[in-house]
Amino acid sequence: MIRIGQGFDVHQLVEGRPCIIGGVTIPYEKGLLGHSDADVLLHAITDAVLGALGLGDIGKHFPDNDPAFKDADSLKLLEHVWALAQEQGYRLGNVDATIIAQKPKMAPYIPQMVEVIARALGAEHQSQVNVKATTTEQLGFTGRGEGIAAQSVVCLVKGMLSS
Ligand SMILES: Nc1ccn([C@@H]2O[C@H](COP(=O)(O)O)[C@@H](O)[C@H]2O)c(=O)n1
Ligand SMILES: C[C@@]1(CO)OP(=O)(O)OP(=O)(O)OC[C@H]1O
Hints:
Number of helices: 5
Strand order of the largest sheet: 4-1-7-5-6
Strand content: 25-35%
Distance between the termini: 13 Å
Shape: globular
Structural class: alpha+beta
Bound molecules: the ligand Nc1ccn([C@@H]2O[C@H](COP(=O)(O)O)[C@@H](O)[C@H]2O)c(=O)n1, 2C-methyl-D-erythritol 2,4-cyclodiphosphate
Number of strands: 7
């Protein structure tokens, strides 16, 4: 059995917040605003896993008016959702994700993000996790540096698959 899911998230860039993306704290003059640590990439991946499982979205599982999730570590939220996938017998096929940001430069931090995500999703090989980044050529809210977006697709696999 194969299931796919997709996720998309946006957070505003503001002063006085850490810039945490893919579980990695990136040195930058601004950070992402949210109820949790606002890790836009992990939120998109979490939503993709939930989508593949047919279990709604991140806000349904971790409401943004629940004090329990104030400044929550989004890696813990992803790990919680991944446990739901494991309970249903799924393992990771692959995950592919794109960070949409004019700045900061993500490339130096992507290998570390891949490591974090691969560990959280029990990947057997790091090639099962791919993270990309793109600017929007200074167009739109991401291009103006007002926020960062991320999107992801996830493929979950259960049982034996013939090639
Ligand atoms: N925030 C970002 C955006 C992009 N990159 C890397 O730069 C390459 C070129 O981006 P374009 O949007 O101009 O196509 C892209 O392929 C990424 O590798 C980045 O590191 N951080
Ligand atoms: C993660 C949660 C919960 O703390 O809050 P935010 O950090 O605001 O993130 P968002 O992507 O808007 O939605 C999910 C939320 O319920």
